[in-house]
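In response to a reviewer's request, we include the raw inputs and outputs for one of the modeled complexes. The two entities were modeled together in a single run.
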Amino acid sequence: MLSTVSSIPRLSTDPDDVAASGTVGAPQSDTVQRLLDAAAQAFADRGYHATTTRDIASRAGLSPAGVYVHFSSKEDVLYQLSRRGHQQALDLVRAAIASAASPAAQLAAAMSRFTVWHVEHYDIARVVQHEFPHLSQEHRDEVLDLRKQIDRALRQVLIAGRASGDFALDHIANTTLALLSMVVDVARWYTPAIARTPEQIGQTNAVLGLRLVGYAASPTRARP
Amino acid sequence: MLSTVSSIPRLSTDPDDVAASGTVGAPQSDTVQRLLDAAAQAFADRGYHATTTRDIASRAGLSPAGVYVHFSSKEDVLYQLSRRGHQQALDLVRAAIASAASPAAQLAAAMSRFTVWHVEHYDIARVVQHEFPHLSQEHRDEVLDLRKQIDRALRQVLIAGRASGDFALDHIANTTLALLSMVVDVARWYTPAIARTPEQIGQTNAVLGLRLVGYAASPTRARP
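The model returned the following structure tokens for the whole complex.
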């Protein structure tokens, strides 16, 4: 159903990428990226089970054997897609938090940037969410661990904001989960037909997020 | 991956059900329900494209021809699953709103019951969300119309609450969307391993929802 799937920018610090491009140089890494993009498209269109490695290869302009140069199996392709997406999300949430000083500014930055990421990568986010049950147990655990790290990074901001008196909330875990729902669900409802820009959607979630944590009891200070 | 899919309770006011059971009685309706449950299970396990009508029939203990007695195609099965789920959700949101007098009590009831529904039917909700792109254009439009009616019912509560001075919020549409994200995303993160009961999760979303609409500026009145 998707005509194009936005590319996941390669993480330069990714050890696999470094290993993959170590002796052969950039072209091999480009092939990995092209295969991941092709897989995301194929999974989005047909689902994981109805997609073959031949489908993925063909969409990337390679022979089926070309897939196995870089991935051990179709599950490995899904795993790399999931791992990279989650690692990228974790990195940007951490960077957003590190970019600001106060808990309110940290929460606003994290909500805004993480939301923009979901708008810009809604197609890959959907695939990664939908096909999660098809990962091996080991790979599911690894992806869940990355999700827990994202959750933990956000929780720390809420804990700091409550300690400083900036936020007024009782239940850190439940509130963090609701904040993440507001962000992650963007991948479900967003379509390119929506007129609001990624930044506007991010800003809305930043303001609503501050309201949810009880920042600024006066409603005029935190209006969506 | 799902071993069981919870059954969608039949809506007694559903004209299709009345028609289906009109001359043949309850058994035919039971068969429809059994086929819908089997389809939800099959779609959850393998995805829409990798599921055949034969798979659905076999899980329901019928011959493939048995599916075509009740449904015109595999797409029709997905459509009936989606339509019934959305109609049921719309009915319960409207009933929740009708059950309370003040906007705050209406919002709390709607958030709580709609959340409980997502906990109890998380498996069907996932299937319906994931496979939505595989519906025909006409059926997608019909399901989208039901979603819009749910959205509209909730918006009316926010508009009334703002008019009465109970809620303090600026952007009705964006806030409604965030409230729905908190509810709908439950189907993504919920697993039966979670210790909280459906009612506790519903209550959390009711309290957080009131906070999001700026009900009771004092944080002690709306704590999660």
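As requested, we also summarize the result in words. The interface with chain A takes residues 1, 46-50, 126, 129-130, 133-134, 168-171, 174-175, 177-178, 180-182, 184-186, 188-189, 204-205, 208, 211-212, 214, 217-220, 223-224 of chain B (CB under 8 Å). Chain B has two domains: 17-72, 75-222.
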